[in-house]
Please model this.
Amino acid sequence: MASIGQRIRQARLEKGLTQQQLADPDLSKSLISLIENDRIRPSLKTLGKLAERLGRPVSEFLEPDLATPKDLQVLMALGEGSLSRRDYRKAEEWLEAARTLAEYRREASIQVKAIVCLAEAKIGRDDVEGAETLLAEAEGLPIRDERLRARILLNRANIALLRAKHREGIEFIHQAIALLDGLPAPEPELKIRALLLRGTLYGQLGRMEDALISYHQALEEAEARRNYTSLGDAYKGLAMVHRLEGSLDMALEYALRAKECFERVEDLTHLMIASRNLGILLLEKGEPASAKPYLEHSLRLAEDLQQDWSRGLTLTELARCALADGDLRGARRYAEDALSTVVALNDPAERGRVLLVLAGVERAEGNLDAALRYAREALAIFQRSDLLPERTEAQGLLGELLLAQGNTQEAAPLLLQAYKGSLSLTATRRLAKKLLEDSLA
Model:
């Protein structure tokens, strides 16, 4: 097997780089020469820089036979550090190297931890199927650390959220919190993560009272630890609750606080989400011109971060924004781009949202048959999910389209169902509002 130096030299030549080009900007040509001639062994940090510049995974340049237990600890520390900073691509490189080395050294506990952390990085990059494969692998290995079991459950809940299986996600959260509460020493960061995720799941189920409680609990924990990332997440969740409760001004205030927190810690992934949320809120306030810059900023970040799922979500909102502004051509362009993206990612819930936009475009252009086709397809998707607001919207739109076509027999029950759905949403909003008022009293 070729040495580290030989492999680096071969990769450099294949990349068409000189030693000086590989060294720039923070290493020296003489250091590269020494490494390639196996005169010195590079540190893991240096190896990481070289691997990145060569476009290769770090694991390609490791020599398991020469690696020490400290090397494994360093790889895990680098991977977990990148994960905490939400630099998911870099985290994957370090954690994959740690996983490979742990498996070679038969360090089962570290191997499991590396796999679970890898799954979290995959979720961060919207690779849900990759994360599920890794979690299944971790669950097939002996797990002695209850904290790792809790993390697996939290990841399962996160995947359920992304797949719009919200009740399933709640069950995973309950199991995770029970495990965390039973630990001999508290795990505040995992507990905050569980509370935030529970709040999001409850919000998606329309359980605003439970969502509000979870987010305020997370906010208190995060404030006590001055964890600005978690503070931003809690503010973001509270913005969602107030949006669903109908208090858009309060939602905007919390959304701006969230954005400030993510800017403070330079968290580009969540800054992308915060910008999209601000755009959505302004759009719902009837201000599409003000919403568009935030949505465009979110789209640029999604493309820079190569987050296809988030890109699809933002394209959908840009399509809604264009439709609200009367730009039917732009709405269709954004919606068709969003549709191709979410179909490739196998995201039926977001596909349903895009179809509602396309139905709106066809309706505005006077194409009732095409609008009906899109609305029926969207409703069929939402009837198989827990998404009450979207199902109510689809029922109302389809009922209105059928009414416009003169089909009152089919339109009437749909409009009645939409009315009942809106009453259900209003009831949960009132509960949330009462709880908020009680908490402020």
